[in-house]
Amino acid sequence: MFDLLPHIVNGLTLGLLFALIALGFMLIVGVMEQINLAHGSLFALGAYVAVVLLGPQPPLPPGLFEWWVGQGLGMRYALTLLIAPMIVGLVGAVVELALRRTYGKDPLYGLLLTFGVAMVIEEAIRSIWGTRDYSLPTPTTIAGGFIAGDLIWSTYRFYAAAVAAGVILLTWLFIEKTPYGAVIKAGAHDSEMVRALGFDLATLRTGVFVLGTMLAAFAGIIMAPIWGIRPHMGVDAVVPAFLVIVLGGVGSFWGAVVAGLMVGLVVGLTGAYASEWSLLSMYLLLVAVVTVRSRGLFGKKSILEA
Amino acid sequence: MTPSPHAARLVTPMMLALGVVLATVPLWITKIGLYPYLGVEILIWSIYALAYNLLLGTAGLPSFGHGAYFGVGAYAFGLTQLHVAPGLWVCLTGALLAGALAGLVVAAFISHRRGIYYAFMTIAFGQIFWFMAMKLRDLTGGEDGLLKIARPPVDLGIAAFDITDNVSLFYFVLAAFLVVVVGLWRLTHSPFGRVLSAIRQSETRAAHLGYHVRVYKMSVFTLSAALSGLAGGLFAMAQNSAFPDVMSLHHSGYVVMMVLVGGGLVSFWGPVVGVVVFLVARDVIGAVTNTWMLWFGLLFILVVLFRPEGIAGAWQAATKGVDLKRLRLRGSAALAQVLKV
């Protein structure tokens, strides 16, 4: 049992990260009933923008450049976690404008469109940054490792898991406990009524989409030191994201979190005994669960069933 | 697809014309700056795209992991050649059957699903096949792929042709292409094809009419996977190798893009048009810039948004004097049916 413990811990930390990757995807599916296949590309874009901001030559106007480079790495890293998602959020706003024609139609329509968008963003990344791998400079306080129970643990993974848990909680609080969240949820259920009450539904949807995009970019930055930064990382992220959503049940917030943890555990445990097959295990998990429970673990009936 | 005056015929004038034009391709393709192998590639991808469109365009079933069956066929061709028998017909049969088997298994899992869940499951299964190809190194060679696949001679019993050079390979693949075209044309214009169209328009209605929708969905998926496997087998033979790459999500996406851009939703020939545009664009634009996929991706977005009838639809409007507005309505209606809007 004790031999298993490190793998369980690793699996759970990984699970929180999977849940974080799926969070923005889930928000857009849950509220707008749009499948955003570009989620992974926006995730990758977040990591690339962070690399530019934290790199030695960020493209900033002279005065700002001196100030930015003069900051310590810790400060710049913290600011990057805020700024990079905002920059990627602008791209998300453009994507949302293109998606407007698909509202009220089957989610497959949006899926096709965002597939094209994913292709375009990924190719843009390739043409700007090339195909080589990048790494993200992280402050020394969260890099490195520590020893506990005769094992070396990566500090960064714990930091990343804690941040993921924090952001998941904040998102939940925002959706469930604030008036903004209430309007967003109402907009998903009864758009006519929300419009009649005087809310600008178009702006609301743009806002939700941008928030989802920012969460994707944020997850990209957090995952960057673990997965590395390369053009393919978008696909590596979007497939687990939809998998977590389907597994947890479309429309269920905690379902997705539980599914994320489950996927993390399964990947972590397979990784311990058959590392080659660790990524396959999550697909087998999905097939097994969905064969028995067609709506996933906690899914409700939704328009996604068509 | 609307009934056409040639529907009942085995061979239509269009097929004959296309066959004749294609047969002359090796005579002029090098003169316009391209190369014979591109012709081979276009024909193989056309078989694949037509097989895919049987599922998407005719039956309205969106598969986003179809590269899996193309890849399974490619590996099956190579493995049959290396481990079972080197003959061409055995290897191609192996590719066809392996594709069919993989398709049948997946279809059994997903055919009671609809819409987005159907699409999701095709992606999940596509990824499973891709991972297996990557990880079953002893069998597939992992990322290095399966190398040294030979092009066996075409043995017709009375005579045998060598297809190691690209021009003779082209004629062999052309023959395979024409056989598939005739078969698929007959199929889509048969009662079976009509039921598939009915399912595309409304699964519920088709079920109420007494058709076993699930059986039809399984059959068409298996058939489409089998023909994709055949295309994959031809591809492995043409490339002399099989790689996991063709099973990736990207490659699965390419066939969707080709079919939609070409106009597969309103035209039997749409997928072929899409393949030609895609592959020629890859070579011509790709020679100038590395970002050609970016431009093709933008084209795809615009087609989905504004021109669901695709290039073949625009062509029909130009040549047959079909009112573009009506055609566009047909394109939107077809897309709407596939997407159950």
TrEMBL record, chain A:
The UniProt entry lists the main location of this chain as membrane
Q: Which taxonomic lineage does the organism of this UniProt entry have?
A: Bacteria, Pseudomonadati, Pseudomonadota, Alphaproteobacteria, Hyphomicrobiales
What does the sequence similarity comment in the record state about its family? Belongs to the binding-protein-dependent transport system permease family. LivHM subfamily.
Q: Where in the cell is it found?
A: Cell membrane
Share an example GO biological-process annotation for this protein: amino acid transport
The organism named in the record is Prosthecodimorpha staleyi
Keywords assigned: Amino-acid transport, Cell membrane, Membrane, Transmembrane, Transmembrane helix, Transport
Q: Which domain of life is it from?
A: Bacteria
User: What membrane topology is annotated for this entry?
Assistant: Multi-pass membrane protein
Q: Which GO terms describe its cellular component?
A: plasma membrane
What are the recorded GO MF terms, alphabetically? Answer: transmembrane transporter activity
Q: What protein name does the entry list?
A: Branched-chain amino acid ABC transporter permease
Give the residue spans that cross the bilayer: 12-30, 37-57, 77-99, 108-128, 158-175, 208-229, 241-267, 273-292
UniProtKB/TrEMBL annotation, chain B:
In terms of InterPro entries, this protein maps to:
ABC_transp_permease, LivM-like
Transmembrane segment boundaries: 7-29, 35-56, 63-81, 87-109, 116-133, 169-187, 215-235, 255-280, 287-306
Supply one GO CC term from the record.
plasma membrane
The subcellular location is: Cell membrane
- Membrane-topology descriptor: Multi-pass membrane protein
The superkingdom of the source organism is Bacteria
Gene Ontology terms for molecular function: branched-chain amino acid transmembrane transporter activity
This chain belongs to which protein, by name?
Answer: Branched-chain amino acid ABC transporter permease
Organism equals Prosthecodimorpha staleyi
